[in-house]
């Protein structure tokens, strides 16, 4: 175990105990200081129950077994090889950033917490050899960990990409479900703004938790496929929820300006244990979204 992951992470707690502890913590961080609640957990560093210290198996499955949908990290354009830009918002310790780099993407890991950024940088140094190049013909991309608030624009200047940077791949893993549901309209608007308008550009959402009752609260907040569908079809707009917190979907409502279209939806071949039921069946979904 390395310096950066040597603190006890209280893995002895059950899922229910862990969720109750998270709810207790965030009861003091509602509203405008919500993101500071995450930063406080990173600053203390002994209760990071989402932190698996290993990349998402569902992302690896998508990149390897669904390349027909999501493509590869490089594209040829007029004899020039272009490397795609990827973003992992709320990247935690940065493990999925390292995975995408090993598949050839130039990747930005965005974190609100300065302590998470430090953890990412340490982990990347100490574990570089655990993320070998996936395909020698494509090679390895670059990584940059950037501190900033997903909902603000200032961090884009720190990515090393152009100022109005758009991304060819965005991976959301336990970021949507980490947000208070009131932030979801802004989440969808920001995703729509950050994703390049291109048939080659994909927002990949790992949908989790898909079966948690909405009334149980969060984080993680209930995130069934229809919640992503309703918000990404109407970026920036209020979406109706019932008294228990279940999204109310109107399947016949026309999509709104900036809407993303779902072009793929499946259970991944594998996912972290938390996304499986007691029989080991994968309950998470992967959803692929694009601009029209
Ligand atoms: C549940 S954790 C998931 C981390 C990572 N995706 C993983 O799977 O290990 C959510 C992360 O989002 C970060 N976060 C929360 N609000 C944010 C914001 N507004 N901008 C950027 N990061 C944020 C938190 O610091 C936290 O590390």
From TrEMBL:
Gene3D superfamilies: Vaccinia Virus protein VP39 (3.40.50.150)
Gene Ontology MF annotations: S-adenosylmethionine-dependent methyltransferase activity
Keywords: Methyltransferase, Phosphoprotein, S-adenosyl-L-methionine, Transferase
Biological process annotations from GO: methylation
Chain ranges passing through the membrane: none
Domain of life: Eukaryota
Name by which UniProt lists this protein: Thiol methyltransferase
